[in-house]
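Hey all, sorry for the wall of text incoming. These are the two entities for the joint prediction.
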Amino acid sequence: MLPFLTALLAALAVAPLWRLPAGAGGRRLCRVAAGAAALAAAVAAFAFAPAPASPPSTRPLEVRGHGYVGSASCRACHPDQHASWQASFHRTMTRVDVRAALVPRFDRLQLDWFGAPVLLEWRGDRLWTRFERRGRSPAAVERPIEQITGSHHLQVLWYSTGKGRELAPVPLCYHLEEGLWLPLTAAFVLPPDHQDPPEPGAWSQSCHACHATNARPRFDADHNDTEVSEFGIACEACHGPGAAHAAANREPLARFQRRRQGHDDSIVDPAALPPARSAQVCGQCHAVAVVRQEHAEAWREHGSPYRPGLDLDASHLIVGREQRDAPEVRRELRHNPEFFASSFWSDGEVRLSGREYNGLRRSPCYTHGDRTRQLDCTTCHRMHPEAAADLATWRDDQLGAGMRGNAACTQCHGALAEPAALAAHTRHAPDSPGSLCYDCHMPHTSFGLMKASRSHTITSPSVQAELATGRPNACNQCHLDRSLRWTDAALRANWGLVPATLPEDDADVAAAVRWLLAGDAGQRTLAAWSLGWAPARAAAGTDWMAPYLARLLDDPYYAVRFQAARSLRSLGGAVAEALAGYDFLAPEAAARPVGERVAAAWRQHYQGPPRPALLLDADGLQAAAFARQFARRDDRRVYLAE
Amino acid sequence: MNLDDDVRRLVRRHLRFGWGSLFLFALLGLGLEALHALKADAYLAVGNETRRLLWRLGHAHGAVLALAHLGFAASLPHAARPPRLGSACLFGASVALPGGFLLGGIDARDGDPGIGIVLTPLGALLLLVAVGAVWAALRADARQG
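and here's what came out:
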């Protein structure tokens, strides 16, 4: 139709030239030129008319409907909110425009996956991958990449398996900050024999829920027809389906009437919900949660029954250790026997980052029952920042203005806004990290995506809790060089805490030494990260760190090695130079000499005084005490994945 | 038919076309405003930015070309000879330029205009010839004194 119309208009446009009277200058030339131009336009209209776009058949399909209209419709009325969402990492949780989304630029790339080659290659506009799946069927993969998940820390590439819309991850992912490709399983704290990436279909089975808006799994053993309302976490993930709201506001008079009233009931505003309901909006993704048994069957066809504003507890079981016997948890444990160990410390506090809602629900600021000052996510976080905010800073953790400091807490604890009162409470200088509320009450005790995150269970430092659970206490996360006995004495003297029953054999060993040498893989990873944390370095010094980090360079867990190398590198000087050429994925036998080289470089320069808590003599390490701690290493298998 | 009759006929044609098309493009402007008022996704959604741009260009070019016809009619008495080529090209440009933008906007996709956009360069060429022809005719009139 359009090519015909185009040709018709071209003819109409040149018709006046055709009808020029005899005698008009250059009539013949005009006719020829006009005819040729019209013909060219008509030919072009037919020759280059685009074929109708057909929906992709080899990846999850983006389909509106079910009350969802898509974020593109929201901008007409909400341009500022749309712009800040555009800048957020929520938007780019899943992208199908692979060329634009993929950060590393290359034409052809051969990567190494534990000794096996993985090829990535651009063929025209499509990225292809080719590799062998060891011991799996089909063994050889040569497929196009269909989408990318992640844009903040890691980028994971997904290829179509050819079975309907089923996707599988390429076994390597791209670490954005380090600018390196690494095996997907090495990006998480996983046992070293855990090398295979998730099985095909993983995106439809679980990833879709928090990487797309209103996803509908629609898969079984034989087919896969996954649909989403929108890729990425878009407006309607938090505000609910928007079709009714958009329809209600199309009529200008109704729109102005609502504006005059100051509220609009046709859409959910999470910031205006009661705190518990508001937090659930974030909790639909930021929680260890499973769909309740009665919704499990419908979930397969229709996806999550939760909608913003509803009660998340009605559709999902927010998992804590106390729910171990719930049928939903037993179902989960059948698929993943490490479900609890991989998500919680032994007292039920979340150990995995990105699950802050579980932490919030255990916080006294949330559980005190006074709705007028109940903590929810929007107390500190803003999904749409203040007008003056720098989007590049805001998008990292989406905190509101001033919320990186104590203003977050002094909203309620107003008395502590006064420096003298703050110093009296913290026993630290008011402008020091020791007087930052977060550092003592929200320490970095969860881990994921190759970095530590703050606990969202707001607690006070406790030696007893560490002894019971192994979770690092906040004091020693800064005072890495101090022992539990020192911390216990400080908590007693300054805050009147009941003394803990300390184990006699290593109560005087620095906390960091115990975590680094004797901890489980999760503790070692956290500790290696803490040794690179600026406030801890300021409090504990850095001259003792190298031999401990060096010992972790051949750790069985790649995540531990990665963090150790990162902290070592940031120490600079001779130890960083000795690290040159280190590959954290190398076999233990190849990694160990690098650790020895780093330790030797440190020994040459170390001139510190004897420091018993750090197992240091004037000559260097107390080898026997060091070996004794190392021999205690907790080798239980740890799974801290997504 | 003498030259004055010829000029008067040409003036009347351009006046009719100019006011007529100005009415049409003003009507189109009202239509576009209505799309804003009704928050029409087809016009305002993020994916339809190219369509919005093209239709606004079509509206603007159509309205300005309508005014150009009125200017042309007002200029004719001052030309040494009626610029028939300029007249024909101006009519052609008034169809091809806004028509190209409007048709191109209908099936704009992925940031690119639809195939109707091929009319736009044709219209631009015709407009250039029209303006040049009028300018030449007025220069000739000035030389003749």
